Amino acid sequence: MRLFVFILAAILLAPTLQAQETMDSTTGEDLFATLEADGSFTILVQALSQTGLAEALAAGGPYTLFAPTDAAFAALPEGTLDGLTDEQLADVLRHHLVAGTLRVEQAAALPEATTASGHPLALRAEAGTLRVGNAAVVRADLEASNGVIHAIDAVLMPPAVGEAMGAATERVPAPDEDQ
Q1: What is the Cα–Cα distance from 120 to 55, expressed in whole angstroms?
Q2: I need a surface site. Which of 44, 56, 110, 133 has the fewest CB within 10 A?
Q3: Which fold has domain 28-169?
């Protein structure tokens, strides 16, 4: 009799457990709240808040966000973020955002996508991994109510910010130094 009750309970609870798995994959939260809840994007969350872009991710969309993880930000040369103005930082963040919802398999079929900063972002499938510019997608298709997030392992720099950073790091010799 106990075995019968156990089997009956398993049969009755199975649909509930399957529904829970589905709900977990789609949080019902917007992109910004999904980033906050995840815990792998604390630096990105802080940067979005600092630049005022958090509100756009919470209210707008649908969007595809190629979201650098905390490890991606940690891999930047020391002082990189501190050397950016708020406008440059906002441009960097917009360079990770694409209008519309692109699942990883859809993005892999495209040669590029235009970012919210107005620049093309190269996309390619390589050895079963989606490459986005110089970054690799490390977690794909994190669902949000207003789009999808793909976690990436590098921070993408738009051309203008990359050029400004390169010029700022070039050393100019002092007039009395040998050249």
Answers
A1: 24
A2: 110
A3: FAS1 domain (2.30.180)
The sheet with strand 135-144 has its strands ordered as 97-99, 63-68, 147-152, 135-144, 129-132, 120-126, 112-114
The one-letter code for the residue type at 175 is P
Write the pLDDT tens digit of every residue in 19-66. 222 233 445 799 999 999 999 999 999 999 999 999 999 988 999 999
Tell me the pTM: 0.77
DSSP string across 113-175: EEBTTS-EEEEEEETTEEEETTEEEEEEEEEETTEEEEEESS----HHHHHHHHHHHSPPPPT
Every domain of the chain and the residues it spans: 28-169
Peptide bond before residue 62 is cis, with ω within 30 degrees of 0 = yes
Single-letter residue type at 116: A
